Amino acid sequence: MYPKIYQSELKMKSTEIEKFKDSEILPLELKGISKKFPGIVANDSIDFNLQEGEIHSILGENGAGKSTLMNIIAGLYPQDSGEMLVFNKNVNFSNPRQAIEKGIGMVFQHFMLIKNHTVAENIILGMPGVLKLNLNEVQNEIREISERYDLFVDPEKKIQELSVGEQQRVEIVKVLYRGARILILDEPTAVLTPQESEALYEIMQRMTNEKHSIIFITHKMKEVMALSHRITVLSRGKVMDTLKKGETNPGKLAELMIGNLDITDSEKDNEFFQRAIFEEKDKPKLVSKNKKNNKLTLSLKNICATNDLGNPALNGISFDLHEGEILGMAGVSGNGQPELTDVLSGLRPITSGEYWFEGKLLEEPTVNEMIDRGVGYIPEDRKKFGVSSGMSIAYNFLLRDFNNSNFCKSQFLNNSNILEYSQKKMDEFDIRATSEKTLVGLLSGGNMQKVILAREISRPLKLLLASQPTRGLDIHATGFIREQICNARDKGLAVLWISEDLDELLAVADKIAVIFEGRIIDIISQEEVLVEEIGQLMTGMGSRMSENSN
C-alpha cells in the first residue's frame, strides 16, 4: 500500500499504523481543541474523534469553524490549546509535512496541481529525496494504487489534459501515495458532474473498506445522509452534537446548524430555505410563475472569443434569454463560462458573432455601457472581483452608483445619505456586520455575497449575470440569495445563472443550457430535464441540437 521509495522517509512507518487496524485505538482524536484569531474564537474546546473505516461528515454554517479545524488537523495551523492524538500518539503539527508523515492527507476544494507537469511529477512534487526517485517505478506504483481503489489516472498524462474529475482523482492518489490513512475531503463534489460524483462516492466506500478513515466536508445534505456513518455539527466554533446517520434527519441537522442563529420561523418554512436544506427532487420547482411570451432581452448569435492567453474559449455560442426568465448554464469548470460572462458584461471583446441586447446590435460594448444598459454581475470569485475588500460596506454599495446625485454632488460625497442608504440595504438583505462602516474584507462569505447582490439588484436592471452565486455558502445564505434572485426574476429580470451545482439549476432554472468546450451542447426546458442526460452532456456526450443551431 505504501510506495517502497517513500517508506524510509516516513517517521510513522506503515507497520506502526497497521498494528492498530483491528484494535480499539482511534485513528484521530481531538480533545478540547481551541483556536483564536483577533476578535474571533474560531474553535472553542472542540472534542472530536474519527473511527477506523468511517466516513465522518462535518456540517456547519460559514464561519462555524470547519476550515480552521481541518487546517489544524492537516498541520496548516497550530492549535492554541487542547490535544490531538493520531493513532494514540500525541502530536503537535507546525507544518503540513508533519501531518503527512503521520498519515493525514487533505484534498482541497481548489486543486493544488501544476498543469504543465505530469500526474507522476505532481504526485512526487515536494517529497524528500525526489531527485533520487526512479520515475518509472513511481509510475508503476501510481498505477497499482489507481487500480486498487478504481481511481484510474494515467501517471504519464499532463494535468492540463485531464478533466476536473480526473484531476481530483490525482489529488486523492497523491495523498494515498504518501501513506495517508486519514483523508480530509473538502467539498469534493463541488466541481464534478453527477456521474463523476457517483464515481467518487464509490471510491470513498472502497477506501473505507480498506480501513481508511475519511473526514467529509460538504454543504449538500443529500450527500451527508447518503454517505456518512457519523455526523458532527459545528456552530460558532462549538460542537453542537455528533450523531449516527440513523439517529438523525436533514431537518434535525439543519436545526443544530442554525438553531442558535437569528432566523425566524417564517424563514425556516420558506420554500427556498427548505430546498437549500433538503434538495428533494420531488419538491416544487422554483421556476417562473409567469409563462407568457416575454420580451427578448439578450440574443447571442455564433459568438466567438479568446481567453487571456489568446486561445479560443467561446466557439460559436448562440442562445436567447427573455425577461422574467432564468437560463441555467450547466458545465464543468473551464469550458468557457468566465469568458462568456466577460463578453456579456463588456469585459472581453468578441472575435466574431453578434451580441444583441434589447433588440440593438452592440458594437464593442464597454463595461460602463453595459452597466448603463442595466446589466448586473455577480462574479465567480467574490473576493477578487466582486468587492473592494479594503473599503467599507457603504462604499462597496456605491461602486456602480457613485454618479448618483443623492450620494455625490459637485465631486463631494454626501456621507449622511450614503450611510442611511447603506443601513437600509443591510437591513433589507440581512447583512450581518457591526455597522455599514465595517470593511467588506472582514465579512463572512455569505455576508460578502449579500453585499454584492444588494448592490447589483437594487438598481434598475434588465439582465443579471449570476456566476456561482451560492458556491461555498451555508444553508441560510444559500436560501436567501436564491429567494432574492428568483423574486427579481418574477418581477421581470432576465437572469443567466451559471453553476456547477446541478441540483441548484434544477431548482431555479426555467431552461438549462449545457456548455462544453466553449459551445452550447443543448438547451433543455425544465419539463424535459433528466439529470443523467445533463451529466452526459456536461462531458460532451451527445446532443439533441442540430449542428447548425450554434
Overview of the structural elements:
44% of the residues are buried. The chain contains 21 helices and 22 strands. The protein is 34% helix and 24% strand. The strands form five sheets. A six-stranded mixed β-sheet has the order 6-7-8-3-9-10, with helices on both faces. A six-stranded mixed β-sheet has the order 16-19-20-13-21-22, sandwiched between helices. Residues 1-22, 280-284 and 546-550 have low confidence and may be disordered. Helix 18 (445-457) runs parallel beside helix 19. It has two domains: 4-261, Rossmann fold (3-Layer(aba) Sandwich); 296-374 and 460-549, Rossmann fold. The radius of gyration is 25 Å and the shape is globular. By secondary structure, it is of the alpha/beta class.
